[in-house]
Amino acid sequence: MSESTLYVKVVDNDLIVLSLYVDDLLVTWSNEGIIEQFKSQIMLNFEMTNLGEMTFFLSMEIQQTQHGIFIGQQKYAREVLKKLNLENCKAISTPFSQNDKLNKEDGAEKIDEGKYRSIIRCLMYLTATRPDIMFSVSLLSRFMHCASELHYKATKRILRYIKGTLLYGLKFENKKELFLHGFFDSDWAGSCDDMRSTSRLLQSWISLF
């Protein structure tokens, strides 16, 4: 079984998972013997360098311990804040104000759409390890072709929130018991432009080991 850049090979009861991005490979496995055989075979056909245990990949920092794996984007977040001259901004405790009712024609002065889209792209990449900003970023991405000062102000609020939560990320604990926690919320006709409700998304995953 595989996806566009993720390949999985099962040999008897052992497993190799390979992720490919351009000329970089990430490999994880369940048995030392099978990975040594895999590396020997692939290096016969391609010139490769083994960089050892992964610590950094695509602007993500990876910390691996006996207790689990932590993935964060602290360095990338700092770079984004510096790029936007917000590295010294005042942190805030929430990414979005529940009192804000944003729409496409809010009467506020329009801003450079290119700059706004650039900020949204940076924030969207941060959502890879920051699900806590996912809703806010998704909402603001609706206004990339009609951005105003109010929308820009909302993006700055997310960045101020990030400033105070730089150490946040994803933690995968090494536990034998798995617990599934679910949270649900919804609105009714929440969009100020077309009165549509925000749809819901169910995300699922599988433990390979």
Automatic annotation (TrEMBL):
InterPro entries in the record: DNA/RNA_pol_sf, RVT_2
Domain Reverse transcriptase Ty1/copia-type: 3-96
Source superkingdom: Eukaryota
PANTHER family the record matches: CYSTEINE-RICH RLK (RECEPTOR-LIKE PROTEIN KINASE) 8, GAG-POL-RELATED RETROTRANSPOSON
Protein name, per record: Reverse transcriptase Ty1/copia-type domain-containing protein
